[in-house]
């Protein structure tokens, strides 16, 4: 049995994980904010046939990629705390998932 | 029965990509789970790693195709302003409205988490490669992300199929 030596830091993996979690959170936040404000809903309507869904998912993808790039540059040569950042990532994903659940994001509609 | 162009796209989105996704996801999950030096011979390890890279990237590619075709091809037909569109029909009938206000609104949003999470799994597997077997924390994190990607896709897929049964895109 051979084991590969650990040569790479965990920074790049956690940068990808945290950035994706932030993307999911932004997806949830945009979903909620589009219900709260008609102005935001209109601002997210980037292409009328798809409606605000285009802007919500577009914002999530942009937030994910920009954060990934920035965190990758910052953490690419670092060993960061897996326990802390993994907990942060799971928390962000949980909130993001909850905010895409209709009974929660439709609360501002008042029914 | 003849399929319209809308019908063909729906078949592509729901009946071709979904089974393909299930196939590559299941294979990727098994490979990721078994990628351990103490479970595999060096020869098996090499094969598993190669297969794993293909399967996780295939999972990410398929799930991107699913959300892109779903959002930019099928969804505009679903939500068209015409009274004959599935959305209009569902909202016009009081007992069917929840298929849009709950099922469709959940599906259209949560499904987009799936490609983001699956892409990260592809990156981790490619970047760490053989080293992943010795990094149980990252390998487990990749497994959790892959399962969460599957869960988000499953919500989208199952609700999509049910909505199609109630109000198909014709």
Structural write-up:
The complex is a heterodimer of chains A (111) and B (170). Chain A starts with 10 loop residues before the first helix and ends in a 6-residue tail after the last helix. Chain A is built from 5 helices and no strands. Chain A has 111 residues and is mostly helical. In chain B, helix 2 (42-78) runs antiparallel to helix 5 and helix 4 (97-110) runs antiparallel to helix 6 (136-166). Chain B is elongated, with a radius of gyration of 19 Å. Chain B has helices at 5-34, 42-78, 86-92, 97-110, 113-128, 136-166. Chain B has 170 residues and is mainly α. Chain B is 79% helix and 0% strand.
Brief summary:
With 111 residues, chain A is mainly alpha-helical. Chain A has helices spanning 11-36, 38-43, 52-75, 82-99, 102-105. In chain A, 70% of the residues lie in helices and 0% in strands.
Question: Which features characterize this protein?
Answer:
heterodimer, A: 111 residues, mainly alpha, B: 170 residues, 6 helices
- Summed over residues and divided by their number, the pLDDT of chain B gives a mean of 93
Helix count of chain B equals 6
Which residues of chain A form runs of ≥5 with pLDDT under 50?
none
The rounded distance between the terminal residues' Cα atoms of chain B is: 12 Å
Shape label of chain A: elongated
Structural class of chain A: mainly alpha
What's the SSE pattern of chain A? HHHHH
Radius of gyration of chain A, in Å, reads: 17 Å
Strand content of chain B: under 5%
